[in-house]
Each structure stands twice: as structure tokens, then as C-alpha cells.
């Protein structure tokens, strides 16, 4: 899909000054988009900031969120554990098999893999994607559940 300057100008003219400045600072525009954006800012009398050198590391677009990297491995691993815990508690409540004993055991069963994944991440390459962390967590969770089931 080819976007022309007229379409960009119409889009930018409908946005607030703050939105345009945030878009400018993100560093994810093409040369043509920067030209049109800066022309709109000049037309409004807004000071044009210096263009960023490279895209901002905090730029989050919906299709890139899953593949973003994390610098907080334990936080992400425990988020996976908490998510798994909540999902399993909901399943137990809906199926009528919920009890405090089961919930306590389930807390251990979901957080232990999170500790292991967090430690693996901490002592390996520093930036894993969220998707990779989630897949490693789920794989380890099911592996431990199978080993626990075979032991019982």
C-alpha cells in the first residue's frame, strides 16, 4: 500500500501537537513522513525537534510486542507463572475441583518452574523475547508436571 504526502498531511493535521511530537520522537518514520510531519509542525508554529538517530527501543507496535526483548528475566518468568496459576485456578473453580489444598499445591507447581526459568534467563543471554520466555516456561511446567505425575 503506497501512502502519498496528501494522505499523510491529512492524517497529521487531525492530530494534536503532543501526538505529532511523540510520533516525531519515536524515530520510526520514513524520510517522506518526517518531511510532511515537520511541515505540519512548522505550519502550526511548533518548534521542530531534532530527528532521532535510530528507532526508540520503547516503540511498541502490536505486531512487535510478542517479540520484544526483556531485561527483567525474573519478572517475566514470574508473570508467566502467575498467568498459568490464574488460568488453572479458573479451570478448577469452573470444574468444581477447587480446594485450598489444591490451590496451595498449584501455587508451588506454577512458581517453581518460574524460578528455574528466571535463573536460566539470568545466567544466559540477557535479552530473550517474551515469546521465547513463555514457551520455555510452558515446556518446563509440563515437563515437571509429567515427572511429578510419574513419581506419584
Key descriptive features of the protein:
single chain; 152 residues; mainly alpha; two-stranded antiparallel sheet; 6 helices; 66% helix; elongated
Helix content bin:
55-70%
Biggest sheet statistics: 2 strands, antiparallel
| Termini gap | 59 Å
Percentage of residues in DSSP E strands: under 5%
Low-confidence stretches: 62-67
Structural class: mainly alpha
H and E string: HHHEHHEH
Radius of gyration from CA coordinates: 24 Å
Q: Rough shape?
A: elongated
What is the tally of beta strands? 2
Strand arrangement in the largest pleated sheet: 1-2
Number of helices: 6
Mean pLDDT: 81
Account of the protein in words:
It is a single chain. It is elongated, with a radius of gyration of 24 Å. Helix content is 66%, strand content 3%. It is an all-alpha fold and 152 residues long. A two-stranded antiparallel ribbon has the order 1-2. It is built from six helices and two strands. The termini are far apart. Helix 2 (17-26) packs antiparallel against helix 3 (31-44), helix 4 (73-95) crosses helix 6 (130-151) and helix 5 (100-122) packs across helix 6 (130-151).
Structure summarized in a few sentences:
It contains 6 helices and 2 strands, in the order H-H-H-E-H-H-E-H.
What's the topology here?
Layout: H1 5-13, H2 17-26, H3 31-44, E1 69-70, H4 73-95, H5 100-122, E2 128-129, H6 130-151
Antiparallel strand pairs: 1-2
Helix pairs in contact: 1-3, 2-3, 4-5, 4-6, 5-6
Amino acid at each position: 500500500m503506497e501512502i502519498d504526502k496528501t494522505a499523510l498531511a491529512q492524517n497529521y493535521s487531525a492530530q494534536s501537537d503532543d501526538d505529532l511530537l511523540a510520533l516525531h520522537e519515536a524515530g520510526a518514520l520514513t524520510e517522506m513522513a518526517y518531511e510532511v510531519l515537520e511541515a505540519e509542525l512548522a505550519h502550526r508554529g511548533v518548534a521542530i525537534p531534532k530527528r532521532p538517530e535510530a528507532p526508540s527501543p520503547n516503540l511498541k507496535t502490536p505486531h512487535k510486542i510478542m517479540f520484544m526483548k526483556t531485561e527483567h528475566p525474573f519478572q517475566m518468568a514470574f508473570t508467566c507463572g502467575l498467568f498459568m496459576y490464574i488460568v488453572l485456578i479458573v479451570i478448577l473453580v469452573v470444574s468444581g475441583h477447587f480446594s485450598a489444598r489444591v490451590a496451595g499445591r498449584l501455587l508451588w507447581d506454577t512458581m517453581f518452574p518460574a524460578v528455574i526459568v528466571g535463573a536460566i534467563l539470568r545466567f544466559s543471554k540477557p535479552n530473550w523475547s517474551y515469546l521465547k520466555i513463555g514457551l520455555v516456561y510452558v515446556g518446563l511446567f509440563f515437563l515437571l508436571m509429567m515427572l511429578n505425575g510419574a513419581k506419584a
